[in-house]
Amino acid sequence: MTIAGAIILGLMAVLVVAGLVVWTYQASRRRHSLPGRSGSSDAPVSAESAAAQHTRQADRGGLF
Questions:
Q1: Where are the chain's structural domains?
Q2: How far apart are CA 16 and CA 24, in angstroms?
Q3: What is the helix (H) or strand (E) element at residue 60, kind and residue range?
Q4: How far apart are CA 9 and CA 28, in angstroms?
């Protein structure tokens, strides 16, 4: 393997690890922002907040 090949392979490995770290961070933030996670689970949700949440989810690319 040439030196250039080793450098490219090392950079690819670093980018893969960085991508996994970012993906894990975003997934954990998304999991903590789900409704019902904060406060009591039986707290009422207003129609305005439900509509706003639906709009945000639709803007992100659809409902889950």
A1: 1-25
A2: 12
A3: none
A4: 29
Contacts of 10 (CB under 8 A, 6+ apart): none
pLDDT number for residue 58: 65
pLDDT tens column, 5-55: 999 999 999 999 999 999 999 988 877 776 655 554 555 567 777 777 766
Calculate the average pLDDT of the chain.
78
Question: Token pair of 11, please?
Answer: 């950079």
Rounded CA Rg of the chain: 20
How many residues are there in the chain?
64
Percent of the chain scoring above 70 in pLDDT: 64
Pairwise CA distance, residues 50 & 63, whole Å: 13
